Amino acid sequence: MGTRQGLGRSNEAASAALGAWGLLLAVLFLMLGSGLLGTVIGLRAELAEFNDGVIGLVLAGYYGGFLIGALSVPRFVANVGHIRVYAALASLASIAALVHAVLVDPTLWFVMSVMTVFALSGLYIVAESWLNDRSTNATRGRLLSVYMIVVMGGIALSQLLLTVADPEGARLFILASILVSLAVVPVTLSAGSAPDFRWTPRLPVRDIWNAAPVGLIGGFGAGMTNGGIMAIGAVYGSRVGMSVDRIAIFMGLLILGSVILQWPIGALSDRIRRRIAILLVSLVAAGVAAVNAVVDPLSLGALIAVFAFGGLTFPLYSLALSHINDVVPAGATISVSAVYVFVAGIGAIIGPLAATLALSSVGPAGVFWLMCAVHLAVALFAAGRIQVRKGLPVRA
Predict the structure, then answer these.
(1) Alpha helices for 20-51 (secondary structure H)
(2) Does residue 143 register a pLDDT over 90?
(3) What does pTM read for this prediction?
(4) Span 241-266, average pLDDT
(5) More confidently predicted of 46 and 16
(6) How far apart are CA 245 and CA 159, in angstroms?
(7) Which of 151, 343, 345, 124 lies closest to 262, judged by CA?
């Protein structure tokens, strides 16, 4: 009976994923473009000899737009619908990528970074609420895992595009713009319908906190570590003596780890209590981050360690989001996604700033010691909450 139920849940998750093929393909193009853009910004800032404070500010601005998008995009969706908002925001992100190539100026890049991630945050809200609308508590972990595999797979492949052209030129920015523009095509031509959406008041953060504090802390931690390592990873590689090709491999393996481990971690979280999954993943991620901090960054061991770290740190985002959606009222997915992106966005603003501070004060190893500390804090909080309040059984 257990085997039949497992097969039934797997089939249900696969069917939901196939039904959202247009959205998932669009997300793939979007991640190829935005992943390339984020890394090129870090590399180009280093080549332009921006100081550490300026690099941190520019990269924080790249995530700062999450906050603006989280506050405003749900109302846009209410007025014109998911598909039109998706198309408009993808076009805006494409324009911002081109503007980065026009002039290498910290102030202009900060403004364009805010605009880029304003668009990206809205796209995440649309995509994640769309997928949560198609899922149930029994399949949510795996369906969001498919989404995250597409997200992280696209970003991993985008790092390989760094070798296509010289980072000092404009071609990589143009390529990023083209890929983001292609993200509009599958969504607008897909025969599948977007979920019905009627504007409802935003769930206060306090209410979500009362229902799922581990989810919000996990989202904040995921935003901080994922935003920090993606923003500073290329700069870290440059500081430890990596070539551009080596940086591309390093960043690609970081994301590839998530692609490989995302599905099994999501499937595990559908079978055990979600908070326990968050605890285990965060605890192991903290240990792997410590290994990254002490291993020779130019060795084979460093590549293996960063692959393992990526496979643990990025799935935390979907685990925490799944936990929140398990316990909030039905029909609240768009509101939950907006609040969650807002909280994760705050973490993603702090992450690059904290990582650059660790880089300048401690040295390159400080980046991974920071990642270790954040994951350890999430694990300890989850352990404390499990002791304070017993979670629902998996079937419930």
Answers:
(1) 21-47
(2) no
(3) 0.73
(4) 86
(5) 46
(6) 10
(7) 151
